[in-house]
């Protein structure tokens, strides 16, 4: 009987792979993934059968991985971050009844990004994707308002693309209706990959041009402060 | 000059360690941590100087790690999950000005737990600790209501302890005021450690006696469904 591993490899760099992910990849005879993710595997992908496709073919990749596992192969489908957050775990499990599937968790982009900034998350937080490809815009707006009113640290995924240049700015303006303009904001592009770029700014001073789809934006809560290049959210209310 | 690594080792099992965490631990001459976390290191802690203390001595451990790094040692302070979520990154960075600190991200408990349930998170989510040791109870209540009204998947940390047996039940009752009683709930005790226990239930049927401090509770959003033993939140609104 075949097996299908759904693997989050972390942000990209091999130093963020878990032992569990490495073992699953080594055990597999076939690797399925978006072409750039396969490249992150480097030598791990050597001697494996590879099935890689471009960005818009996610469901095709899922179906291919499932059918290869049904045929008796040991298959790893890889994605960055954690496979269970905006990743492949859901689409695979929705379609793979009867297949032996194992989800292998990974370091998600928000924590990879946070590590560069110091300790910006630390306490209760909300993660929101600003992509409206699969989610109605009014749902996104509702969630941003709720996260703001709950004083959560907020991590924005997919904050800005060519097709939706103004999504992040619209959401930041919603935050500014109630949050302090000088609330710290950390912007990390390509966290855990080559060429990582880290910017520390405030809610009223974001340079939107530096934000793209591969950027994670972390907005502090009412207690978050900065010290030099660091963004720190206290773990509790004991010090502030 | 010394160095201080603040390391999230993931849920506990060594298969969840990242390469980066392994490298940092190997490079260190001193390891600091809560006694059970040091045990998770197994042979990695062999031949190292160890400074371990009990549960309530977190700030003491931080101060010790910082002073050892100031003396020129290469120190790893380890905690489970990701060090930047209810972990040591904040307390360390608040106290370590001038010390060379590096935060090493890890697999957080919510994603480790989620992998056992299938794909319960997948989309926008909020993480909330129900411990009121460091956070006023009214802030916790405000956040639970906000996460509920924003239809986030909700991950509860520290859901229930001997000293606060009714915290989770009170919060679930708040959720039931607006969410469907049959909303799926996943309960994972000791995720990624020996003796992991997974329960799939619904908002109106939680057995609170099986929940303790080492349990992660994941409550679905309005689209979450179950199939057999799996809890799945669709990644988007395309299928439902």
Describe the protein's topology:
The structure is a homodimer of 240-residue chains.
Chain A (H helix, E strand, L loop, with lengths): L2 E6 L10 H9 L2 E5 H7 L7 E5 L4 H13 L3 E6 L9 H7 L5 E4 L4 H9 E2 L5 E5 L7 H13 L3 E5 L9 H10 L7 E6 L7 E6 L12 E5 L5 E3 L2 E3 L8
Parallel strand pairs in A: 1-4, 1-5, 2-3, 2-4, 6-13, 7-8
Antiparallel strand pairs in A: 8-11, 9-10, 9-11, 12-13
Describe the fold and architecture.
Chain A has seven helices and 13 strands. Chain A has helices spanning 19-27, 35-41, 58-70, 89-95, 109-117, 137-149, 167-176, and strands at residues 3-8, 30-34, 49-53, 74-79, 101-104, 118-119, 125-129, 153-157, 184-189, 197-202, 215-219, 225-227, 230-232. In chain A, the strands form three sheets. A five-stranded parallel sheet of chain A has the order 3-2-4-1-5, with helices on both faces. The longest helix of chain A has 13 residues, at 58-70. Chains A and B meet through helix 1, helix 4, strand 5, helix 5 and strand 6 of A and helix 1, helix 4, strand 5, helix 5 and strand 6 of B. Strand 7 (125-129) of chain A pairs antiparallel with strand 7 (125-129) of chain B, so a sheet runs across the interface.
Summarize the structure.
Two copies of one chain form a homodimer. By secondary structure, chain A is an alpha/beta fold.
């Amino acid at each position: 009987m075949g097996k299908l591993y759904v693997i989050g490899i972390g942000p990209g760099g091999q130093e963020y792979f878990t032992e569990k992910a490495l073992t699953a990849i080594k055990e597999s005879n076939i690797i399925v993934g978006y072409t750039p993710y396969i490249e992150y595997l480097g030598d791990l992908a050597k001697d494996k059968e590879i099935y890689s496709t471009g960005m818009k073919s996610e469901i095709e990749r899922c179906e291919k991985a499932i059918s290869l596992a049904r045929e008796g192969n040991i298959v790893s489908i890889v994605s960055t971050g954690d496979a269970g957050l905006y990743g492949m775990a859901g689409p695979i499990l929705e379609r793979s009844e009867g297949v032996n599937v194992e989800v292998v968790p990974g370091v998600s982009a928000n924590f990879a990004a946070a590590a560069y900034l110091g300790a910006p998350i630390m306490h209760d937080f909300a993660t929101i994707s600003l992509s409206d490809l699969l989610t109605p815009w009014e749902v996104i707006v509702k969630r941003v308002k709720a996260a703001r009113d709950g004083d959560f640290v907020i991590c924005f995924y997919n904050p800005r693309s060519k097709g939706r240049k103004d999504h992040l700015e619209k959401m930041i303006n919603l935050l500014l209706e109630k949050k302090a303009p000088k609330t710290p904001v950390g912007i990390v592009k390509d966290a855990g990959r080559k060429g990582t770029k880290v910017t520390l700014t405030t809610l009223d001073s974001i340079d939107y041009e530096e934000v793209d789809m591969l950027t994670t934006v972390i907005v502090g809560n009412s207690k978050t402060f900065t010290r030099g290049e660091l963004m720190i959210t206290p773990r509790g209310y004991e010090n502030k």
